[in-house]
Amino acid sequence: MRNAKIKLAGILAIALIGTTLSVKAFMEKDPTEASAAKVKRVSFPHEFMVQTSNGNFEGSDDDSGICTGSATLNCKYRVTEAGQENIDASEAPFDDSEINTFLDPANQYLEPISGTGPGVYQP
């Protein structure tokens, strides 16, 4: 009887140690690792950012259109490599404030196209 109690105590001790180690490993996982794996960033697939209406910017693969009307910002910009990597396409369309952030020298996500001025892009 005594041997059976010792065996049972040994089995319970091993099970307790195994459970403790499993729980510890689970609790020590980095939560940002799991959430980063779930979030998939949609990079900006377009070469240009154009102002389709006053204060409304969207991506475009063509910049052959003309600029008409009046606006605060240029009607078209070239998207830099940094912009293609950091502008989230799923957040389009973009407003003037966001375009100014993209133009900020600290970001350099967009660059003005030579000879283009303020206005609305007309394809």
Tell me briefly what this model is:
The protein has four helices and six strands; from the N terminus they run ααββββααββ. The chain is of the alpha+beta class and 123 residues long.
What does this structure look like?
By secondary structure, the protein is of the alpha+beta class. The chain has four helices and six strands, in the order H-H-E-E-E-E-H-H-E-E. The strands form two sheets. A four-stranded antiparallel β-sheet has the order 2-1-4-5. The protein is rod-shaped, with a radius of gyration of 28 Å. The termini are far apart.
Keywords:
single chain, 123 residues, alpha+beta, four-stranded antiparallel β-sheet, two-stranded antiparallel sheet, 4 helices, 39% helix, rod-shaped
